[in-house]
Amino acid sequence: MKKSTFITFGLLVFVLAVVIPWLAFRGSGDANTGVEAVPANLKQGQALFQTNCGTCHTLYAAGTDGNYGPDLDELLAPSGQAETPEAAKGVAERVLNAEKEGVDSSAPGRMPPGILNPEQQKEVAEFVGTVAGAG
Ligand code: HEC
Q1: Based on the domain organization, do 7 and 40 belong to the same domain?
Q2: Ligand 1 contacts CB of residue 104 (under 6 A)
Q3: Given CB 3.0 to 4.6 Å as the disulfide criterion, which of 33, 35, 42, 68 pairs with 56?
Q4: Domains identified in the chain, total number
Q5: CA 44 and chain centroid, separation
Q6: To test the ligand 1 pocket, which listed residue (100, 103, 106) has its Cβ within 8 A of the most ligand atoms?
Q7: Could you tell me if 80 and 15 lie in one domain?
Q8: Which of 50, 56, 117 to mutate to test the pocket of ligand 1 (most atoms within 8 A of CB)?
Q9: What are phi and psi of 74, to 5 degrees?
Q10: 43 and 64: one domain?
């Protein structure tokens, strides 16, 4: 192979394997995706939500856009993010209840109960209670 061919090919590989993925991924986490920076104590709940709930539910602060189940910003906080700890707690309790019991789970295709263990359920409920309605 001629040296120039080798160099051209090398550049092409670099662009395809490094530059394009870098351009594609560097955006995640910034404001455009809707993922909110949350306090450290809510990070675990946010990550769990993204993995376990986001495929079915839209939630702005988690950056998820699932539309199998209801949009949780609209459902839980139609007038915006909870302003007091008490309000956040009320929403968190509703979420925790849905996580534990499921919603309508005897009917097919509804919200299944017990996706997460009890500790994780609490973390997700606290996260959702605090951030629902953001954005
Ligand atoms: C397989 C899809 C699916 C997954 C995964 C899922 N849900 Fe749901 N969820 C639904 C559906 C569907 C409904 C609406 C059920 C109905 O109205 O009959 C719902 C309803 C809800 C509600 C509303 C309850 C109420 O009080 O009205 C909350 C809150 C909720 N889900 C939270 C979560 C959380 C948190 C997770 C992750 C642990 C999660 N969901 C995972 C499908 C899902």
Answers
A1: no
A2: yes
A3: 68
A4: 2
A5: 11
A6: 103
A7: no
A8: 56
A9: -70, -40
A10: yes
